[in-house]
Amino acid sequence: MSSPYQGALTCVTCQIVFETGDAHREHYKTDWHRYNLKRKIINLLPVDRPTFESRILNQQIKENEENSKSSIYCTICKKSYNSQKSFDSHTSSKQHKTLALQSDNEHKDIGVPAAKKIVKPVENKLVEESDDEYEDVDDDEEWGEVVSENNPIVNNICLFCPQSSENLLQNIKHMSDTHSFFIPDIEYLVDMKGLLVYLGEKVCQGFMCLWCNDSGKNFHSIESAQAHMIDKGHTKMIHEGEALLEYSDFYDYSSSYPADTSVDDYRIVEDVNSQLILPSGTRIGKRSLMRYYRQNLNPNHDWEAMKETKLNKVINHYRHVGWTGTFPAAAARKARDLKVMRQVQTKMYMQLGVKANKFQKHFRQQVNF
């Protein structure tokens, strides 16, 4: 008897199953998924979504209590921040640095933190922000709550040495030129920033070698782990065997599947839980999401296109230094291996769920209403 989840899309880290490919891809962008990735590095079990949301709510309540009396204001960008952490992330953004160079405040008060002052709490209101500010938030502040402060990638620092770069692309170029570090199967990568941040967590929190992984020597500091990788020539990322399953959340090998598979069927209906797509192409959304449909967002910003452009820049740099790409046969082999491992894991999850159901000795209504 086959599993009811046979061939279904699953998240290995969060241990959940998806009905559509779009829901599967959108899940990878959530803070819940990234939080479980961080727990996975230190060998902790994942938490379910209600538990994660309750922890976030408790953390927000705690931060609101600490910042209820004052906030930090940036005189250059004319924006206020409720915590020192968010303000520090803002000051390191490209938008703030550009405006700081154009501002006269730096010339008037040299040596004085003119970008910071205490202001009274203001009422909640809608504020129109430029598109560049949203771009910087996506690059610099998105990972603030789920990633360690000393993560080298978030701080634009090399994974293998203390070298600092201006941005993520320059950091990737440094690692490839200096340490010969190349992201494997980059053509099938769907979350480049997420993968690099995950590698940064393994180095700065787990003190792990990216090539030895769990099977190698244990280190007690980030410096000793980096020295090992440089001395042994392990400035590379293992992406075979069990490591395929570990990094599967960041890759999509569907383009390497044979043409007769039904993987592309998941792309026919987009976001089936919130939209209905008619044969004419018209989209009908839920009434409960009307507040989001009415938002006046910039239609010219295509975030996926921006991420794809950044990925293409990395690919072009790799080709410039002699990288020839991934062979289709090798990618198809990895896709088959990954599919088998996911099927085995799904079967184990089902057996574990059946075993857990046997612990229930009495009937309990499985609804909340």
TrEMBL record:
Localisation per UniProt entry? Cytoplasm
Q: Name one GO cellular component term.
A: preribosome, large subunit precursor
Q: Which InterPro entries match?
A: Matrin/U1-like-C_Znf_C2H2, ZN622/Rei1/Reh1_Znf-C2H2, Znf622/Rei1/Reh1, Znf_C2H2_jaz, Znf_C2H2_sf, Znf_C2H2_type
User: What are the residue boundaries of the C2H2-type domain, all occurrences included?
Assistant: 74-96
Any one GO molecular-function label of the UniProt entry = zinc ion binding
Superkingdom to which the source organism belongs: Eukaryota
Q: Cross-referenced Pfam families, in alphabetical order? A: zf-C2H2_2, zf-C2H2_jaz
Which GO biological-process labels does this protein carry?
A: ribosomal large subunit biogenesis
Q: Which UniProt keywords apply?
A: Cytoplasm, Metal-binding, Repeat, Ribosome biogenesis, Zinc, Zinc-finger
Protein family according to the UniProt entry:
Belongs to the REI1 family.
Question: What name goes with this protein?
Answer: Zinc finger protein 622
Species per Swiss-Prot/TrEMBL record: Melanaphis sacchari
Gene of this entry? Znf622
